[in-house]
Amino acid sequence: MRWPIQAVEIAGGIVLRACMLLRVCVLLAVVGASTSVWAETGLSGALTDPQGKAVPAASIRLLHVSGALVAETSTDDTGQFAFADVAPGTYRINAAAPGFNTVSKDLVLLAYPHATAELRFGSVEGQSQSVVITAKALEPTLDLRNSEVFSRTLFSRDDQVFQQLNAGINAGQHEGGGKSLEIRRFGFNLDHGGVNGGLKVLLDDVQQNQGTQGHGQGYLGALKALSPELIQDVTIINGPFSPEHGDFSGLGVVHIRQRESLPDQFTARLQGGKFDNGRGFLAFSPDAQKTDAYIAYDGSYTDGPFLNPGRYRRDNINGNYTKTLDESQRLGFRLIFGRNDFYSSGQVPLDLVNAGLLDRFGYVDPTDGGRVKLGTFSTYYSKSFSNGDTLRIDGFLGRSLFDLYSDIHVLPQ
Asked: How far apart are CA 47 and CA 43, in angstroms?
């Protein structure tokens, strides 16, 4: 019988076909797995500067050949970077960091498990910075002191004028008080008022610094003729130098304005103190229509605390006459005259004072001293306009005579 044999052959064919089908499935599974493994890969690398040092915190961008951004990362502290799961293909990788020109590199990623790319900056980025400097004219600060400041302290020395201002001006007397002040401001020694920039002093628009004084440039000796009762106000300009005020104004300007009339028709004042200190002030100010005027005398005397009495005697005459011509015009005249005689204790040697050989109020030569005569005649015309402007013309004539006696020699040891 042939039928059983045919049945066996059919069964064997089914088994064979099943085995072949199983082999095909296994092969497809292996190929599929292999395709899945080789479809994606990784990319890593390092970024360095022109000297080969690592560049941290740099921006790394992976771009497709079409220009589309694929991935972006940053370098770590050692300059390393990495991209995962990157499909094979053609790419461009860019690296950028502050201070460097951007660097690019083209690469082709194949179906390998991993790829590397070493990047290096070739040059430092050029630095450019714009600085805009703007400047404007410096506006000096202004301080104003009115007559009340001087009415509280009726001084007998011109250095006390500046002490009452409280404006950073140190003024001191020497040589018996008859010479000009010694001025210091903001730490600068101005000598008698004219060196190291100077301090300009104006009295009713008339400059008090003497530019041709033989004893010292910018000499302020004319302030001896000033009386506190006649001061109206003081304007202080705290520098810097301005062509408007000219020479001696490097460390500021002090503008003293005197009264044109006094509140009382008659004024009399007497003062006295230690060291034979005495002072008298007499003034007459008439009450006249369209006229402001006064005439005043100021006299003082003091010996000071010195063993050789200073015998400082000062006499001042001050007058003003101002006529109101109409509502917008005024014409004025002023006269200031002063004289003083003094003896000086001299500039005593400090080593002798420290050794106890000379009293600090002592003297070397009792004949040291001097005498001063000075006078100023001034006039002014002013006109006011409807727009608020004022035209003012000033003129003055001054004369100063100064004799100083000094005994300069080396004392025997």
From this structure: 13
